[in-house]
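Morning!

This is the sequence you dropped in the shared folder:
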Amino acid sequence: MKRVLFSVLGAVAVFAAVTPSAAGDRYADRPPVMVSPDLSAPWVLQLGRAPGIVRQNRQVVQQQQPRLRAAQPDRVQTATVQAPAKRMVMRPQINPIYLPQEVAYDGPQKPGTIVIDTTQNFLFLVEKNGKARRYGVGTGKPGFEWSGTHKITNKREWPDWRPPAEMIKREAAKGRYLPTYLAGGMENPLGARALYLGTTEYRIHGTNQPWTIGGAVSSGCIRMRNEDVVDLYERVNVGTTVEVI
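The structure's back. Tokens below.
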């Protein structure tokens, strides 16, 4: 009886050692944000090609496994792998001028200030010695332009989104129905980070549509590539002055 019990316990231990933990996967931390070499790719596609970020669906993995031919007399059993069909994917391009770079800056703002030029669609983080770090941004579309000075009052990683009632009503009139709440994540239009401006509903935030950077595309928020908003997020603190001109 003891021998049988030990055999059962041993089998259970071996099974536990080789079985992955689904609970660990379920409560894993969000994937880190990584810069993709393909700057023209949508953000979700960038994550999909970044190693170690997005796991493949189990069904897809099984479909990619090599299949063995049925054994035949006098023939060696070989494995064959069917090459995936190539698809032409047309992706919008992003103008390299909107990628982050160090530039000369002679404005009156002190270092540490954020200045957003809504006519040129640039965000400047003022630095010392007449320099600034410049990012491309998406700004308010016609009818949603604004200017003013605010402080950053909050910072959030992978923010959730609650569209204002006016936006929900406005979009519904166009036949586009928005959710009242969307949890943070790769499908969220606020992207990877958000910097909240004063008591307004405006934010500097990421996007899941990076090809829109450089245009007048938003309802007043300042839109950045996810890579860029993560970089800015780490450089500024709550209380930072933001001037929108």
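Headline: Helices lie at 2-18, 22-26, 43-49, 58-64, 165-173, 226-235.

More detail when I'm at my desk.
O.
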